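Lecture notes, structural biology module. Today: joint structure prediction for complexes of two components.
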Amino acid sequence: MKFKIMILGCLLLALALPALAQDSVKTVEASAIPAISPPAPATNVTAMDSPNDNGHSLTLRWTLSADDGAGQKTVLGYKFLRSFFPDSGFVLREGMAPSGSSEYVDMGGRKPDDRDFMPNDTDYYYIVRAITADSNVYSDSPVIGPVKAVGQLYNVGRTLVLVFVLCFAAITIFFIRRARKGAKLFVRRLAGIEAVDEAIGRATEMGKPILYVLGLGTAADIATIASFTILGRVAKKVAEYQTGLIVPCYDAIVMTVAQETVRTAYLDAGRPDAYNDDMVYYVTSNQFAYVAAVNGTMLRQLPATNIYMGTFYAESLLLAETGALAGSVQISGTDQVAQIPFFVVACDYTLIGEELYAASAYLSREPILLGSLKAQDYGKAAIIVISILGIIASQFRWNWFLELFKAGN
Amino acid sequence: MPMGTFLWTTLGAFLTLCIFSFLYRDNPLYKFAEHLMVGVSAGYFVILLWHNGLVPNLFSFLSDGHFYFLWLDAKSWWYIFPAVLGVMMWTRFSRKWAWISRWPIAIYIGIGTGITIPLVMRTSINLQLYASIRKAIDWGNFFGSGYLDSTAGYSQALIFVGVIAALFYFFFSKEHTGLFNGVAKFGIGILMIGFGASFGYTVMGRISLFVQRIQAIGNWTATSWHATSSYLIIWILIIGIFVVLSIYEFIQYMNRRGAAQSGS
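The predicted structure, tokenised, for the full assembly:
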């Protein structure tokens, strides 16, 4: 009986196997990717130099393939081939534009030794390729070209920046002329700067030096330039009171300018003999090595006053905390927003952001600096007015007004 | 781990502990680590400036890739002018000719300022203005019909009011009195709230840096040349530093005592 059942089972299995095999074939056929027919190519292709740049870039525009988002809907995107010749040598570029986009900026390297250097004033020819899911199925547009990348002297998109700079310059010149003619330009009291004179007096009484740190900025940074002015004022007072001055520098050019500033201040104070080049010295251009050296100086020479003015980064708290530990009076000022909290916490007085620039004018009372300070105040008033107008414009959807401030690329 | 790497990482751990000893007070170990770091970094930057500054930005243009200083044949022969400006800086070593070095400094600062002004005008004024006013007040957010919820609506309005009030604080041409003073105080209050948040955030970052450094030393002990001996070395380093500091303190104490006795 069992034998019969086994034979019957084998027969049934033998009958079922071909049917199963047929089903599996059907499954494979059903899941096979249907052949894609080549899509319609991109049309109306144009190539032009990218505007408002220094060259090394070309912009391609085209009308979408008929199968991009419509028709067969098979276009996944567009790739680009470039050549120096109209009929040969086309090489596929690295980037691609997704489906639905009709513009591509081909940006090459700007220096001759860049990997993808794209020289200006050289003829280029392009093909726009509409691609599909199948890498072998695509459609090429006709060859377009020749086109050259050219640098522009003037960036039209930044005209508003020029207008702002010109307006600001005009206001500055106006106030400088007024200051030179003797007009009294009011500047409100800055507690941090008034404390400088007290701190120098304290150092003189204690017979200890003053440590002046110019920060990590270069000589061309605005905060460092403002700091030079304050250093000049401090050095003059130090020369008058015959107190010591220590200026460790992070940058060689900053050191050179600082030496000139201090030398001039000593000359102005009538004490050129007291000036010594070693007062202003170079330490190193490594951030934390510089901090280690300045911290060591603070704890060994125990300056009565530490003044930090300029551009600071992560070293701000390390310096200010060590200075507080050494018991020095500390006055700081920086335009680095992220570092101001540390100075506020660890220093006796802190000049916040623009107060640093105002301090140099407040101290020197020079017409040029006073005029600039007045112009800055008018600039801030203009910003408040523009902001309120901007709010009104955004409510009425006057986008043209808002777009003015995008200020190009 | 190879023996050489093991020795270098041991030195790294030792120098880390030397720098941390500053938390106690200034001491010879800290001075050693400080002077080593300053000296090494100064020397390193000379080489770095040579290879990353002078060679690619100057010599490569003057040499045409063959020999340095064959600038007469070079395509970019005008690069000789910045080279001359650089050489002029060396006149600082002569008292008589030091004034010549003011010229390259003046050109450097002038060009730097010229580049900075339009850049700052665009990034710090134009683009900031655009970002501030573009979505400053979206009434839809207040009433739940906008892109964001009502909290975002209040936040946007607060940011805008805060920006205006903070600008009032930075007016230097007018004494802060009356209503003006009130607005300015509100502005500095907003700034201080921002500073407080920034302070807390950065302190957390610093603590994570400290933890990373400790973990780096811990990983070194786990994966180094011989794990057991590495733990031993760490303890030897810590005890060694403690002994050196103790001896230093003892010498200081004896010196002070000697000075006090000779004074009396």
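Point to remember: Residues 172 and 184 of chain B are 11 Å apart (CA to CA).
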